[in-house]
Amino acid sequence: MVEDASLDDFLDAGDESEDERDGGSSAEDETAEPGREPAGSEASADGVKPAGSEASTETVEPAVTTYAWSPEGAACAECGEVVERRWTQDGILVCGACKRW
C-alpha cells in the first residue's frame, strides 16, 4: 500500500546527496568548524534565512470547478431540465443546451 505524501515532501529532494537520503552525513558536514553551521545551511549567523531560500509565500488562487456530473441528474439553473452533465456559466451550472460555447 502506498502512503499519501504532501508536495512539500518532494521540495529540495534533488539537493540531497545519496548519503543524506540514507541518513548518513555528507563530507561537508564532517569538516565543518566547531560552533559553525555546516556548509549549505539555510540559516545565517544571526538565525535569519537568506532571501530566496524558501518557497514563495504568495497566495495561489484556488482551482474553480467548470463542470459537474450528477449520476442521478440535477436541474439546469437556466431551463430547469434534469441532466447528468452541467457546466459553469456566469457562476451557475447549466446544461449543454443552455451553455454559451
Automatic annotation (TrEMBL):
Q: Which domain of life is it from?
A: Archaea
| Region Disordered, annotated ranges | 1-65
Q: Which residues form the DUF7573 domain?
A: 63-101
> InterPro entries this protein is in?
DUF7573 (IPR055995)
Composition skew (Acidic residues), residue ranges: 1-32
Name recorded for this polypeptide: DUF7573 domain-containing protein
Q: Which organism is it from?
A: Haloarcula terrestris
Its lineage opens with:
Archaea, Methanobacteriati, Methanobacteriota, Stenosarchaea group, Halobacteria
